[in-house]
């Protein structure tokens, strides 16, 4: 998202995280801007029963965890490295200084946060109103659009990851995927979902 050269000019550091390493925890004070250089990060919440709800997944070039920096509140979710990852980390003061110097980056950040807010509103509606098949299809279509809306899109997520993103149980996702395939809305090729 932000050019790495600019981040490092503002004293950012590159931090290696192994798969499963916690980057920050829910309710921890927000002190840094994070951007994935290489790897994948998941932001999530756990309920009282230990069920995970994924707030978002971020990969190479994407930033995460910015709203608490702007709103001066604690992280509403935890972030963990899904695989071995390199994360660029910039302290909050330097991050705000960078935004003041580079208004174009500030506008880009605002647009990114707006898209994420739109996604959250869409998912809240999905979870509260629609049946499982609709929720699954909405997530697939969102990912397809994010990837440039190719004529045929292969979903890289596992059934468990789709469940975590939609607030469904994996068994429900498996049934929903089967029903969507029977309805001709998706194809299953080598156990992968295609739309």
From TrEMBL:
SMART domains named among the record's database cross-references: cNMP, HTH_CRP
InterPro entries named in the record: cNMP-bd_dom, cNMP-bd_dom_sf, Env_Response_Regulators, HTH_CRP, RmlC-like_jellyroll, WH_DNA-bd_sf
Keyword field contains Transcription: yes
Molecular function as annotated in GO: DNA binding; DNA-binding transcription factor activity
One GO location term (cellular component): cytosol
Statement: the UniProt record of this protein carries the keyword Transcription: yes
Highest taxon above the source species: Bacteria
UniProt keyword list: DNA-binding, Transcription, Transcription regulation
Domain HTH crp-type: start-end pairs: 130-195
Domain Cyclic nucleotide-binding: 17-116
SUPFAM superfamilies: cAMP-binding domain-like, Winged helix' DNA-binding domain
Gene3D superfamilies the record matches: Jelly Rolls
Entries under PROSITE patterns matching the protein: CNMP_BINDING_3 (PS50042), HTH_CRP_2 (PS51063)
Pfam families to which the protein is assigned, alphabetical: cNMP_binding (PF00027), HTH_Crp_2 (PF13545)
Official protein name in the record: Crp/Fnr family transcriptional regulator
